[in-house]
Amino acid sequence: MLQTNLEHIESEEQLKELIENNEKVAICCGRMGPMCIPVYDIFEILQGNYPDIQFRDMDFDVPEAAAIKNLPECRGFWGLPYTIYYRNGKVVKATSSIQSAKEVKSIINDIFA
Amino acid sequence: MQKFDVIIIGAGPAGLAAAIYTSRATLSTLVIDESSAGGQVKTTHQVANYPGLVEPIAGHELAGNMRKQAEKYGTRFKLAADITAFHLSDQEKWVELDDEEKITAEFVIIATGSSPRLLNIPGEQEYKGSGVSYCATCDGEFYKDKDIFVIGGGNSAMEESLLLLQFVKSITVIHQFDNLQAEKITADKATTNPKVKILWSHEPRAFYKKENKMVVEAEDLKTNKRIRLERDGIFIFVGLVPNSTFLKNIPIQLTKYGYIITGPQMETNIRGVYAAGDIRDKRHRQITTSVGDGTIAALEIIHKV
Predict the structure, then answer these.
(1) d(C-alpha B66, C-alpha B186), whole Å
(2) What is the DSSP string of B53-117?
(3) Is the distance from CB of B205 to CB of B227 less than 8 angstroms?
(4) CA distance B150 to B173
(5) What is the 3-state secondary structure (H, E, C) of B208-263?
């Protein structure tokens, strides 16, 4: 279980429902590790600044995370966390490994503008 | 323009310790950070040498506690905020955030710490997370039974190599010198492992991808000849750099390596501007020394107010 203040995604159904019912969704899938924690923290801060975006996290080691790991956009990813951005139910951006607040804000401003 | 008694730039242990002291002394205190609170501590797996904690504590938990403690005494935070302009002089101090808010203060503490050094060569950024990694504990298992490069020969490179040896088939260390800079006990553990080879006096110049393999183009620093080697992945551990580039247009005294020069009371050459923690020119960089620096800077400011 991830120890963050973000809402967690715990099932494939929950993920499906989230991306079907929300235009803008950002999910950080990882562990409580050095590269992942800063991204969860940045999501926590940014969810106050971007109320129209649904920020979530997901434990990389639960079987349900296959819904993220098996995305074609994540093929070739060899670094945690995987960060996936959905718009209107479709993946519009995916990143692997740590991202700075500046990088996350730049992606959000680009794809969710 | 908003006004605070103290602006602290950087929310690592030095900045948070200073904030706890200045806020408790009822000085209005704003902590600014371009990321979240905690600095490098939040990315440390476990902290075992912080006095008063009998059992090791997760770095993110310690960082979270420091932030909560500062908040409890009234510290305000602006996190994930970009400083888009600022001015620091004896007479005037202000910062502008995200091209919007302008905030002024009588005192400023710079506690921006340091960050892992990047090689800044072609391919490094492009393959981050898909062949290039900076964390053995995070990404080591992706390379189970694979052949990898480790770039670097200091303590972090050798400690991370020991972790990676639990997963990988082989490690080729690429190091710019003829000897390792890591402590002997750690270096010996890594280098005596039959799975480890070292390419001495070489520096990477570029990374490429060839089908599923990562290619390192490395230069022999003695002959200037370049070679290309293939492995499954690359882990980079080449030390830390001070987060001081944003100060380049400010007349603050820095060392040639970019660390801020202060007096024993943490004040810089600009009156009312202090530096604390890993950004400061000093010999030892630990959480405890950062907390000490932050405390001294805060007490000096409290004394002056």
Answers:
(1) 31
(2) -SS-EEHHHHHHHHHHHHHHTT-EEE-S--EEEEEE-SS-EEEEETTTEEEEEEEEEE---EEEP
(3) no
(4) 5
(5) EEECCEEEEEEEECCCCCEEEEEECEEEECCCEEECCHHHCCCCCCECCCCCECCC
How do strand B213-220 and strand B240-242 relate by DSSP bridges? unpaired
* Catalytic sites of B, residue numbers: 135, 138-139
The answer to whether the predicted template modeling score (pTM) of the entire model surpasses 0.90 is no
Rounded CA gap, A30 and A43, in Å? Answer: 13
CA-CA-CA-CA dihedral for A36, A105, A85, A94, to nearest 10: -60
ipTM for this prediction: 0.84
Chain A residue with minimum CA distance to B82: A102
pLDDT in tens, B275-292: 999 999 999 899 999 999
Smallest CA–CA distance from A38 into chain B, residue? B36
Q: Number of residue pairs across A and B with CB atoms under 8 Å?
A: 86
Question: Which pLDDT tens digit goes with each residue over B226-279?
Answer: 999 999 999 999 988 999 999 988 999 999 999 999 999 999 999 999 999 999
* B151-160 pLDDT per residue, tens: 999 988 999 9
Mutate to test the interface with B, among A45, A71, A73, A74 (most CBs of B within 10 A): A45
Of A34, A36, A42, the CB nearest to B35: A42
